[in-house]
Specification:
single chain, 75% helix, 0% strand, globular
Amino acid sequence: MHKFKKLNTLKPFDWLLILGVISANIIYSVLENDFDVVGSLAGITGVVCVVLVAKGNILNYFFGLVNVALYAYVSFKAQLYGDAALNALYYLPMQFVGWYSWINRRESVDSVTVEARRMSLMQRVWLGLFTVSTVSLTAWVLYLFRDPQPVKDAATTILSVIAMFLMVRRFMEQWVLWVVTNIISVVMWVVALANGEAHSALMIIMWVFYLANSLNGWVTWAKLSRSRQ
């Protein structure tokens, strides 16, 4: 049983994101006169999770379990099969892998903050080449399966797979991919909203907050990895 004592305190911007997504969900529910339990819970737990990731806080994995399970369900209903498979078959088990990977890579035995690191220049070059080639191949496969948004779906799927792997491995470069993924995801759910898909508005709200947090995470992890070097 792990006992955490050095809990890193969330800063005002972090609380702004968490309280902001809760408020946005409440306002949306009032305006629509309908409380979307699944969409709201997915969005709120997702934002709390990524805020904790941006802090390098291992407790993010508890919220991540709830978020990825619900988001897989929502994506499947919207026929975004790449995102659905990503969350159900990859993100969900990676919550456990990430926990066990981070638990022995913290700043101290009673801290929740993980030690961050950076990739070399050559690693970044290979990362870019691998990402472009796999996104292109996946988009073609999704097109054959009549995915309504094959390029966007492929990009968010592949970038998220790679970014999650980099997150588990504690690399700062994950945040570059998260920023791109979040921008594409906002566009993808705007299209889904235009097509009348359920839960779409709440997913847009969630991804906008994800985007703001990913920019904050990029800055935070740049500092964490720099201090370790």
